[in-house]
Specification:
The protein has 10 helices and 9 strands. The protein is α/β, with parallel strands linked by helices. The strands form 2 sheets. Strands 3-2-1-4-5 form a 5-stranded mixed β-sheet, sandwiched between helices.
C-alpha cells in the first residue's frame, strides 16, 4: 500500500493506492474558491492553506490503513507549496521508518493512466496539458517518457485561465470557458492557431487575438462572450489536436492518451474520441496519480530521504 501526497499548486491531496493500481482512497481539498477572488493562484496563500489542510487530508486518506511506502510530489510546482508536502511526507515516513519515493508531478499525470480500471499499457503518444505544462510525450514504458514537444510560451491551461480573465469569467478559467462555450458559436471568430515548427506549441498569439477582440467590442463584450469563449476554445483545442495527431504519426503509436487538467475539456475529448484519458477526477491534480507513479520509481530508504528537497523546475 502506497500513501501519495500532492501539494504542487492549489490542491492539498492524499491517497492510498495498492501495488497493482487499485485506489483505496483519494482525498482532494481544492483551494479554487480561495484563489478565485484573485483570478489565479497566489503562491503564499496556497502554501499557508496547505499547512492548514495537510494533516486532516492525510488522516482522512489513511483512515486506519497501514501503508508500506510514502510518495510525494517533489517537483515541479510552487516551491513553498511543494515544501509543505515534502516536509509532511518525510515526517510520516521517518516516524514509521518507511521508504520515501520522490515523484515528478508530470510523471504522476502520465501514471494516472496506469490506475485501475483503465490500466493503460505502453507504448503510446501522450498529450499532457495542464495549467503549468503542455507537452507531447513518447511513452515506451511506465518508468518514464521522452519529451517530443513542449510549449514555447503559455501552457494551454494558463491560456484558458488568462482568456477567462479577459472575458470576465471566474477561476479556474478552463472550466468556466468550457461551460460558456457550449452556448456559443465556435466559428464566430477566426482566432489564430499557431503553426510552430516541429511538435512544439504556442498559445501567446491566440491569447493576444482574444485581447484585441475584447478591446474592439468594447461594451458589446458581454453580449458576445459565449461566441468569444467558443471560438477561443476551438483555437486552443485545434492546436492541441493537430500536434498530437502529428506526434502519433511520427512515432507510429497505435494508442494516444490525454492527461492533465485540460484533459477534462469536453471539446478536446469530443475531437479525440479514441484517445485514452483518465476519469475526470484524475485529470486535475490528485495524489492517486503520485502514488501510481511511485510504483515505477526507486524508493529512497531511511534516513537518506531526510536530505530530500523540493524543486520548482521539472528537471
Amino acid at each position: 500500500m502506497i500513501l501519495g501526497i500532492e501539494t504542487s499548486c492549489d490542491e492539498t491531496a492524499a491517497a492510498v493506492v495498492t501495488e497493482d493500481g487499485e485506489i483505496v482512497s483519494n482525498v482532494v481539498a481544492s483551494q479554487a474558491e480561495l484563489h478565485a477572488r484573485f483570478g489565479g493562484v497566489v503562491p503564499e496563500v496556497a502554501s499557508r492553506r496547505h499547512l492548514e489542510l495537510i494533516a486532516p487530508v492525510v488522516a482522512e486518506a489513511l483512515d486506519g490503513h497501514e501503508v508500506d511506502t510514502v510518495a510525494v510530489t517533489a517537483r515541479p510546482g510552487l516551491i513553498g507549496a511543494l515544501l509543505v508536502g515534502v516536509s509532511a511526507a518525510k515526517a510520516l515516513a521517518w516516524s514509521r521508518r518507511l521508504p520515501l519515493v520522490p515523484v515528478n508531478h508530470l510523471h504522476g499525470h502520465v501514471a494516472s493512466l496506469y490506475l485501475k480500471p483503465l490500466d493503460l499499457q505502453p507504448p503510446f503518444t501522450c498529450l499532457l496539458a495542464s495549467g503549468g505544462h503542455t507537452m507531447l510525450l513518447d511513452v515506451q514504458d511506465r518508468g518514464g517518457y521522452r519529451v517530443l514537444g513542449t510549449t514555447l510560451d503559455d501552457a494551454a491551461g494558463e491560456a484558458f485561465d488568462k482568456g477567462a480573465r479577459l472575458l470576465g469569467l471566474g477561476y479556474p478559467g478552463g472550466k468556466e470557458i468550457d461551460a460558456l462555450a457550449k452556448q456559443g458559436d465556435p466559428e464566430a471568430y477566426d482566432f489564430p492557431v499557431a503553426r510552430v515548427p516541429g511538435l512544439d506549441f504556442s498559445f501567446s498569439g491566440v491569447k493576444t487575438a482574444l485581447l484585441y477582440a475584447v478591446r474592439d467590442l468594447g461594451d458589446q463584450v458581454k453580449a458576445r462572450r459565449a461566441d468569444l469563449a467558443a471560438s477561443y476554445q476551438r483555437a486552443i483545442v485545434q492546436a492541441l489536436v493537430r500536434k498530437t495527431e502529428e506526434a502519433a504519426r511520427q512515432t507510429g503509436a497505435k494508442q494516444v492518451a490525454v492527461v492533465g487538467g485540460v484533459a477534462a475539456n469536453s471539446e478536446l475529448r469530443a475531437v479525440l474520441p479514441a484517445a485514452k484519458a483518465p476519469p475526470l477526477a484524475l485529470c486535475t491534480d490528485n495524489a492517486a496519480m503520485i502514488a501510481s507513479a511511485a510504483r515505477y520509481v526507486e524508493a529512497v530508504p531511511p534516513p537518506r530521504y531526510l536530505a530530500l528537497d523540493a524543486y520548482a523546475s521539472a528537471l
